[in-house]
Amino acid sequence: MQRFIDYLVVFAMSMFKFIFGCVGGAVRGFSYLETVLITVLGMMTSVVIFTFFGIAIRKWFYSNFRKKRKIFSKNSRRIVKIWRKYGIIGVAFLTPILFSPIAGTLIAVSFGEDKKRIFFHMFWSAILWAAILSYITTQFDIDSARELKNYFFK
After folding, report:
1. Rounded distance, CA 123 to CA 145, Å?
2. Residue 12: helix, strand or coil by DSSP?
3. Can you give the three-state secondary structure of 88-137, one letter per residue?
4. What is the distance between the alpha carbons of residues 53 and 59, in angstroms, rounded to a whole number?
5. Contacts of 48 (CB under 8 A, 6+ apart)
6. Do the beta carbons of residue 122 and residue 44 sit within 8 Å?
7. pLDDT digits (tens, 9 = 90+) for 13-47
8. Given phi > 0 = left and psi -120 to 50 = alpha, else beta, which region is 87?
């Protein structure tokens, strides 16, 4: 039962911030393959949810929680610049390391990208980054969150 809960925690972490899934898998002692699979599944779950319901969720969030919203903020200009220069491929490539799976998907949906293209590009990006980041995190042989904290915040 504890192992199942660990899988769910890593899955949920990777739905919101991709790198947390890779680190969480290593902290919980998952194998390289387990970490890659669960992290990819977590990210792709976010991609599916926010591809189909992203615009509605964004409208609801802004209408209930954000009253004054700048249209041309520094962040939105940077996103438009990335989109114009690299398109869905660039956003998908940067999503696991720069954006969250939710933000990357909302960016693609907001620019009107085709759902199949979003799934395809987010999927290869998730596999690529999960393979790289899971390899790095599992090679540290991290046994506890305390070791991880000591390693990064000494």
Report:
1. 28
2. helix
3. HHHHHHHCCCCCCHHHHHHHHHHCCCCHHHHHHHHHHHHHHHHHHHHHHH
4. 10
5. 119
6. yes
7. 999 999 999 888 888 888 999 999 999 999 999 99
8. left
Instruction: Please identify which residue in the block is written with the tokens 């002692």.
Output: 29
H or E, element range at 45: helix 32-65
Residue 95: CA atoms inside 13 Å, Cβ hemisphere, count? 35
- In angstroms and rounded to an integer, the radius of gyration of the C-alpha atoms of the chain is 17
Q: How many CB atoms lie within 10 A of CB 110?
A: 15
> Token pair for residue 9?
């925690």
Model pLDDT, residue 75: 77
Q: Which amino acid type is present at position 148?
A: L
pLDDT tens digits along 121-136: 999 999 999 999 999 8
Q: SS3 of 28, please?
A: coil
Beta carbons of 30 and 134 less than 8 angstroms apart: no
So what's the pLDDT on residue 151?
A: 61
Other CB atoms within 10 A of residue 84 CB = 10
Q: First CA to last CA across the chain, in angstroms?
A: 34
Q: Please enumerate in sequence order all residues whose Cβ is within 8 A of that of 138, keeping only pairs 6 or more positions apart, or say none.
A: 25, 26, 30, 31, 32, 35
